[in-house]
TrEMBL record:
Name of the protein described by the UniProt record: Alanine racemase
Organism: Hyalangium rubrum
InterPro entries referenced in this protein's UniProt entry, alphabetically: Ala_racemase/Decarboxylase_C, DAP_deCOOHase_LysA, De-COase2_C, De-COase2_CS, De-COase2_N, Orn/DAP/Arg_de-COase, PLP-binding_barrel
A Pfam family assignment: Orn_DAP_Arg_deC
Enzyme class: isomerase
Length: 395
């Protein structure tokens, strides 16, 4: 594992300045992750669109956009966050599902291009934008693996008929291989199904390999073979472009793989209990402030920032500051001796950490800070109790 920011000394200063718990993101790790990711796809033309759903921190969105990334949105709120950060509409691609009239009107009125999820949605689009151009999300799973997302390849002739009747061009296909996917074989199998289905689209301009590129949250897990994936996708795209007699654009939507490892959640030890051959470390945050097993992903590395000695051979649970029975931020850790006031860092929380935090258990959400060229930049203020009730109105 590489050296993580923030270090123990810097973490102590950040907590002193901004309080605890505290989300901290290392901007340089995001830069490096984006450059490595982009370099893995030796094909042109190619567009990279950051999946903003995993972290809409405005500073990070602007950073990635400055490096050349567009934005992938799958809700109007995603699109709004991107536009608010200064990303122009033509650099946003929207791949949503079950858009009602207000959703469609919002996206179309801003000139954001769409990948639609169903034949019904194509009819809705055609009624609003005759003569327009649109893509489709394709169901890339085999029949034995039910999936609610996308148009079945068998439905493409019907979709083409609807499009022709309205003068709409079907210009692209989008796939989704699943979240936190580290399987090269899974990505390529889905991509090949999409390439095969694209033969039915005479106006094809682009194929979107989607997102879901996974990271290893546990020590010993193998990372996604990204360079191999990029080469294999590029090889298939070259063959497709040759067969079409024109360059077909590749669109890729990295999210978690760009920001997960750049994020840490700093927390303070409040109490230590030992009983029954087990240790319980109570901290000043809760599952409502971070993604854990009961919500999205089952494991985050936990690091004691000022260890007094080697880790104890004592099963240790890191416990949140509510009485919710599943308020555990980590289970069965091996940590050194700890005392109230010590700092811990939950690592790899840059994706779906703050993004999925909530007011569940009525603890205000932490602040967010970005470390950038030696500076620490407050990007999201710490919530107060008043924020917990800010949207309520008196009858």
């Amino acid at each position: 594992m590489s050296v993580r920011e923030p270090s123990a000394e810097r973490a102590a200063l950040l907590v002193e300045r901004y309080g605890s718990p505290l989300y901290v993101y290392d901007a340089e790790r995001v830069r490096a992750a984006y450059r490595d990711f982009a370099a893995a796809f030796p094909y042109a033309p190619v567009d990279f669109h950051y999946a903003i759903v995993c972290n809409k921190n405005r500073h990070l969105v602007r950073l990635l956009h400055s490096l050349g990334a567009g934005i992938h949105a799958n809700t109007p709120g995603d699109a709004f966050a991107a536009l608010s950060a200064g990303v122009p509409a033509h650099r946003i691609v929207y791949s949503g599902t079950n858009l009602d009239a207000a959703d469609l009107d919002y996206i179309l009125s801003r000139g954001i291009r769409l990948n639609l999820d169903s034949v019904d949605q194509l009819r809705d689009f055609a009624a609003r934008s005759p003569g327009g151009a649109v893509g489709l999300r394709l169901l890339v799973d085999e029949p034995s693996r039910p999936n609610r997302i996308g148009v079945d390849p068998a439905e493409l002739p019907e979709a083409l008929a609807i499009a022709r009747a309205a003068g709409v061009r079907l210009i692209g296909l989008h796939m989704y291989a699943g979240t936190n996917n580290r399987s090269l074989e899974r990505f390529l199998a889905c991509f090949e199904r999409m390439v095969a289905a694209s033969a039915l689209l005479p106006d094809l301009e682009e194929l979107d390999v989607g997102g879901g590129f996974g990271v290893p949250y546990r020590d010993g897990q193998e990372p996604l073979e990204l360079p191999t994936l990029g080469r294999e996708v590029a090889r298939r795209m070259e063959a497709l472009s040759t067969s079409r007699g024109r360059r077909i654009r590749l669109v890729v939507e990295p999210g978690r793989i760009l920001v997960a490892e750049a994020g840490s959640l700093l927390v303070k030890v409040i109490s230590v209990k030992e009983r029954g051959g087990r240790r319980y470390i109570g901290v000043d945050t809760t599952v409502g402030n971070v993604v854990v097993e009961s919500v999205y992903y089952p494991h985050h590395r936990v690091e004691a920032l000022s260890p007094r000695s080697a880790p104890l051979e004592l099963p240790t649970d890191v416990c949140g500051n509510t009485t919710h029975s599943r308020d555990f931020l980590a289970r069965d850790c091996r940590l050194p001796p700890l005392a109230p006031g010590d700092l811990l860092a939950l690592r790899d929380v840059g994706a779906y950490g703050y993004a999925m935090s909530s007011h569940f258990l009525n603890r205000p959400r932490p602040a967010e800070v970005v470390l950038e060229q030696g500076q620490d930049i407050l990007t999201t203020r710490r919530e107060t109790f008043a924020d917990l009730l800010a949207t309520q109105v008196d009858a």
